[in-house]
């Protein structure tokens, strides 16, 4: 069997997602900590984004596609349910998180702390203030979604949960979003429960280079 390579720096939430998938399936892999927009990534992802995967002749970009491959190419517990309704609900939550929560709301907020683009490197307050009401609404949506079973889909840990937890981890460590998550009791319980899961902990990234922790002052 050729070596499975996950390509991308571990601090990327989507690199973390595909690594959780590998740990859940007990698929051994090598992590190549490559930055976005480098020649190796540009050769795989048309927009230069991480993660990417290489496995023999198989070369893939996009976390959802990579997780699909890991799920179907290897034995081990299914990452996504195989039943039609649960399978569709898993896709539904991955889509909501990826196209609304992550890219439109959570990512600009997290970037405003870690990559603020301000002259003095301090957090980008205008971006933070703009995203706060949207974050509040999306946390309320997620709180309702996990209230009944403690999972996004049914009563088991699926790819929908794997896809959300890394971004939730970063938000939990930032000032305003951390307070908001803790105010949503079901979401906070969901976060604490699943962050303790072995696959999630084993793939936990180190803080960004030059930092000693994930927490940031407001
Ligand atoms: N839809 C992509 C999103 C990947 C993504 O946004 N990756 C970030 C790191 S977490 C990245 O490469 N950012 C660089 C950029 O957008 O220029 C996926 O699911 O893999």
Account of the protein in words:
This protein is an alpha+beta fold. The protein contains nine helices and four strands. The mean pLDDT is 97. The longest helix has 31 residues. The site of glutathione has 10 residues, from helix 1 and helix 3.
Uncertain segments = none
Name the overall outline: globular
Proportion in helices? 55-70%
- With helices defined by DSSP (H or I, 4 residues minimum), what is the helix count? 9
Strand order in space, largest sheet: 2-1-3-4
- How much of the polypeptide forms β-strand, as a percent range? 5-15%
Tell me the number of strands. Answer: 4
Radius of gyration: 17 Å
Main beta-sheet strand count, sense and barrel state: 4 strands, mixed
- Look at the helices and sheets and give the structural class: alpha+beta
Oligomeric state of shown chains: single chain
Distance between the termini: 48 Å
Q: Give the averaged pLDDT, no decimals.
A: 97
Bound molecules: glutathione
SSE diagram, text form:
Blueprint: E1 4-7, H1 13-25, E2 30-32, H2 39-42, E3 52-55, E4 58-61, H3 63-73, H4 84-114, H5 125-147, H6 159-172, H7 175-183, H8 185-195, H9 198-202
Parallel strand pairs: 1-2
Antiparallel strand pairs: 1-3, 3-4
Helix pairs in contact: 1-3, 1-6, 4-5, 4-6, 5-7, 5-8
């Amino acid at each position: 069997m050729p070596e499975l390579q996950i390509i991308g720096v571990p601090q990327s939430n989507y690199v973390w997602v595909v690594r959780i998938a590998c740990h859940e399936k007990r698929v051994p892999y090598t992590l190549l900590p490559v930055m976005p927009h480098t020649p190796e990534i540009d050769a795989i992802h048309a927009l230069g984004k991480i993660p990417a995967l290489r496995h023999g002749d198989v070369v893939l970009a996009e976390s959802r596609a990579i997780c699909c491959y890991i799920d179907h190419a290897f034995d081990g517990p299914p990452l996504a349910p195989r039943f039609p309704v649960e399978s569709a609900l898993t896709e539904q939550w991955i889509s909501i998180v990826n196209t609304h929560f992550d890219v439109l709301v959570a990512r600009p907020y997290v970037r405003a702390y870690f990559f603020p683009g301000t002259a003095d490197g301090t957090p980008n307050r205008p971006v933070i203030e703009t995203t706060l009401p949207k974050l509040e609404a999306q946390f309320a949506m997620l709180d309702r979604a996990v209230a009944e079973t403690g999972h996004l889909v049914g009563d088991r840990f699926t790819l929908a949960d794997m896809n959300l937890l890394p971004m939730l981890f970063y938000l939990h460590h930032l000032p305003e979003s951390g307070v908001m998550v803790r105010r949503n009791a079901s979401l906070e319980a969901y976060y604490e429960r699943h962050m303790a899961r072995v696959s999630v902990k084993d793939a936990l990234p180190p803080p960004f280079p030059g930092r000693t922790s994930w927490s940031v002052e407001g």
